[in-house]
Specification:
496 residues, alpha+beta, four-stranded mixed β-sheet, three-stranded antiparallel β-sheet, 13 strands, 9% strand
């Protein structure tokens, strides 16, 4: 299947051509006359010349014209109705031209928006996508810190990734460039509706906490670390300098919620995270009880067509709203067939799909992508992250209780220490992580996690501070208005 940009262009050209053809056909119909009409006109002229009485001639002519009046009016310049009909025809023709121009402008606008630099990231929404080549890619060094690679290195790494993904025979799909959307997944043979395209184990799993994901990444084998870093990354904090780690930027645009396990359980996949978005896709996802993703075709997919998924679940919303949402959140202007065709899914169909995705499926496939080795499973089990994280939570809780007392005391004395306590939180959390760095977190991870914790603390301190202000204002009665003495009127007598 061609890229969304080429689809938009084809639709635009089709609309323009169809309108021009229709307009030319209408014009031809207005000028041409059939043999029957010409014969009727000749008969009318003969009849008129043979009748001497003018009134009788008019009556006879009107009678002969009764069956072909509209067609004769078209070719008769002396007809009273002819100018009016010509004006109406021109009005209709101009209206069609305006409509065609309007549709063409909309298509041009879509292409212009899609071609903007900020929209060239049309690679992932909720499930991730391929990588672009226009910018250097961030990658982890051996100690887990972030580093920048040159465009030449990025292209080399991308080619290695493609070679690794596409070197298996018997598969229904391949990963390759998808135009302006980076990498995508394409059918390499005809795929019948209802076919299991593939089943895949998460490359990495994690809950809502950042450090849990960072720890899971550090426990991955080096090969899988490289697979994870090869995915597209995008900053969502919108601050300078960026306050997100490389893992956070990749996770936000490549993760799926493992609905069969429960809310808050997320996973990133080596192949499924490269499938691009369409509001009305040709495939859908389900999950096994173990959290594996299963990609199933929802319609017949021709050889060479791109396989797509719906990331956002916004297909029930009007096109303008869902396009705005996707553009604002994920920096791409959707040009899928649903948006171009102005298709909106019913609420019932959407709710049914949500319920279906929560139910685990049991499938048997000859190949499960990314199966974990025994060593990986043992590493995750023996890592002891939960107990380590509980110790961190206890430390943060004690710090929070102590600083709450400080905040109360300073408020009573008329001081506002929220900013000071926020900086102290950042410092204390960073010190604890450096002293208890069991998983080898980089300094970048420690610093940015400390910043995140300090911002969370500041929000909680703001809420507490405003509550104390409200309590003081409610406890102190309003001051009574000052008594106003009545004006004394002194009447002066005469002569005083």
């Amino acid at each position: 299947m061609t890229s969304k940009e080429s689809n938009a262009t084809k639709v635009k050209d089709k609309l323009s051509n169809s309108t021009l053809v229709q307009s030319s056909q209408d014009g031809a119909q207005a000028v041409e006359t059939s043999p029957e009409v010409n014969a009727g006109a000749d008969q009318e002229m003969k009849t008129t010349s043979n009748i001497s009485d003018l009134g009788t001639a008019v009556t006879s002519t009107d009678t002969l014209r009764s069956g072909s009046e509209s067609r004769l009016d078209t070719i008769s310049p002396t007809s009273a109705a002819s100018p009016k009909r010509e004006r109406n025809r021109r009005k209709k023709e101009n209206a069609k031209k305006r409509k065609a121009e309007k549709l063409k402008n909309k298509a041009d606008e879509a292409n212009a928006l899609a071609g903007m630099g900020t929209m060239a990231l049309n690679e992932r929404v909720l499930g991730g996508a391929g990588n672009g080549n226009s910018q250097p890619r961030l990658s982890f060094s051996s100690n887990g810190s972030s580093s920048s690679s040159s465009p030449t290195q990025s292209e080399s790494t991308e080619q290695q990734t493609l070679d690794t993904l596409n070197n298996q025979s018997g598969r229904l799909w391949e990963v390759k460039q998808a135009g302006g959307k980076g990498l995508g997944v394409f059918a390499i043979q005809f795929i019948k509706k209802g076919t299991i395209i593939f089943q895949e184990v998460p490359l990495i799993r994690g809950g809502p906490d950042l450090l849990e994901k960072e720890a899971a990444f550090m426990l991955l084998p080096e090969a899988k670390k490289r697979d994870f870093i090869a995915l597209h990354n995008r900053c969502n904090c919108h601050t300078s300098p960026c306050q997100e780690t490389t893992l956070m930027r990749i996770w936000d645009v490549n993760s799926f919620e493992l609905a069969s396990i429960g809310p808050g359980n997320l996973g990133v996949f080596k192949v499924a995270s490269r499938i691009n978005h369409a509001c009305f896709p040709n495939a859908f996802r389900r999950f096994t009880k173990d959290g594996n993703i299963v990609i199933i075709s929802s319609e017949d997919i021709k050889k060479g067509c791109e396989i797509t998924l719906d990331y956002s679940g916004a297909c029930r919303l009007p096109v303008a709203i869902r396009r705005e949402c996707l553009l604002e959140t994920y920096s791409f202007y959707c040009r899928c067939r649903g948006c171009i065709g102005n298709i909106v899914e019913s609420e019932d169909a959407f709710l049914n799909s949500i319920e279906d995705i929560k139910r685990p499926v049991e499938v048997t496939t000859t190949e499960i992508l990314g199966e974990k080795t025994t060593e990986e499973l043992d590493a995750l089990t023996l890592a002891g992250f939960k107990s380590w994280y509980q110790d961190l939570e206890k430390y943060i809780s004690v710090f929070s209780d102590n600083t709450t007392s400080v905040l109360y005391g300073s408020f009573i004395r008329g001081n506002d220490t929220r900013e000071v306590l926020k900086d102290r939180c950042r410092s204390k959390v960073g010190d604890w992580l450096r002293a208890n760095n069991t998983f080898g977190f980089s300094e970048d991870v420690i610093e940015k996690y400390s910043i995140r914790m300090s911002l969370n603390y500041k929000q909680a301190a703001d809420i507490l501070f405003h509550k104390m202000q409200a309590a003081v204002e409610a406890a102190v009665p309003p001051a009574a208005p000052a008594a106003v003495r009545p004006a004394t009127v002194v009447e002066k007598g005469i002569g005083q």
